[in-house]
């Protein structure tokens, strides 16, 4: 176990098992994911809608509820120098872990607020369930100090959720998640449905929190522009698998997987008026994955082996990629380092 690792998975599989007329339908949302996430980094997970990234995040947070099932593998956290399997914890231990160590910002901040209570009361309720022996005044003072420290206007404490803009609600949700100084924070599509200017405020808040707490933030978004601005390392997900991972800068400068190349080439570039090219076709159904490489029906570089065999992951230094185009290079690197 490396000292700076805070979370890791091995061959993690989580499927939705749906009852349908005549049997079951199995949706392979997370299908053999290996991750190693470090302290003091913002780790991004990118990919098109429906690739499994939000399900992966829930699985990492041990938030697996039917019809989602953990099929194989597990999630290991490291806390106080001890590594443990989060799925082996009792309900009480898991609750304590979520209070003290990990926090989750779900998609759509509105869902975490009570529409008929002011933001300061949400803070009070949150604090009273986590801190004992504080008076209401002390809890309001903690809320005020926290909001001020994060550069948010104190007046929001007197507001009801519907009186805040979507961007401000999202920032309050993130602030609330950071209140107990979690070591690991999950943020699931935190900028969805926000305009570009508001997105910047949300992203900056995440960066500020990470810089002040030196914690780990795992950020899921399909928006590659946000990953370019915020994340330290980036994983690209396709059809339930991680198909490429490297330092974010490296991925943007030297994307190896054809799918990642499409994701990056489809981004608008300043001063470049040329046509942007996205990946052809549609992502596959996770209930009916193609054989071999799941990207092969859309890949302009597909070879016969791609239709038959799932590509092995090649490690090229700290860069990993699951594509037959790079299998040999990865093997050479592996041999040179072993
Ligand atoms: Fe394309 Fe083959 Fe690589 Fe898949 S393995 S991305 S089909 S070249």
Structure description:
The structure is a single chain. By secondary structure, the protein is α/β, with parallel strands linked by helices. 33% of the residues lie in helices and 26% in strands. It contains 11 helices and 12 strands. It has helices at 53-60, 91-100, 119-130, 136-149, 166-178, 196-213, 224-230, 248-253, 258-265, 304-308, 327-337, and strands at 5-20, 23-38, 42-46, 68-79, 82-85, 102-105, 184-188, 216-220, 233-238, 241-247, 313-316, 319-322. Strands 6-7-8-3-9-10-12-11 form an 8-stranded mixed beta sheet, with helices on both faces. It has a 4-stranded antiparallel beta sheet with strand order 2-1-4-5. A hairpin with a 2-residue loop joins β11 (313-316) and β12 (319-322). α3 packs across α4. The protein is globular. The mean pLDDT is 92.
Terminal Cα span: 18 Å
What ligand species are in this complex?
iron/sulfur cluster
| SSE pattern, N- to C-terminal | EEEHEEHEHHHEHEHEEHHHEEH
The major beta sheet can be summarized as: 8 strands, mixed
Q: Which shape, going by the Cα principal axes?
A: globular
Runs with pLDDT <50, length 5+? none
Number of strands: 12
Mean pLDDT: 92
Strand order, sheet with most strands: 6-7-8-3-9-10-12-11
Strand content: 25-35%
Task: Give a concise summary.
With 338 residues, this protein is α/β, with parallel strands linked by helices.
SSE topology sketch:
Blueprint (H helix, E strand, L loop, with lengths): L4 E16 L2 E16 L3 E5 L6 H8 L7 E12 L2 E4 L5 H10 L1 E4 L13 H12 L5 H14 L16 H13 L5 E5 L7 H18 L2 E5 L3 H7 L2 E6 L2 E7 H6 L4 H8 L38 H5 L4 E4 L2 E4 L4 H11 L1
Parallel strand pairs: 3-8, 3-9, 6-7, 7-8
Antiparallel strand pairs: 1-2, 1-4, 4-5, 9-10, 10-12, 11-12
Helix pairs in contact: 3-4, 5-6
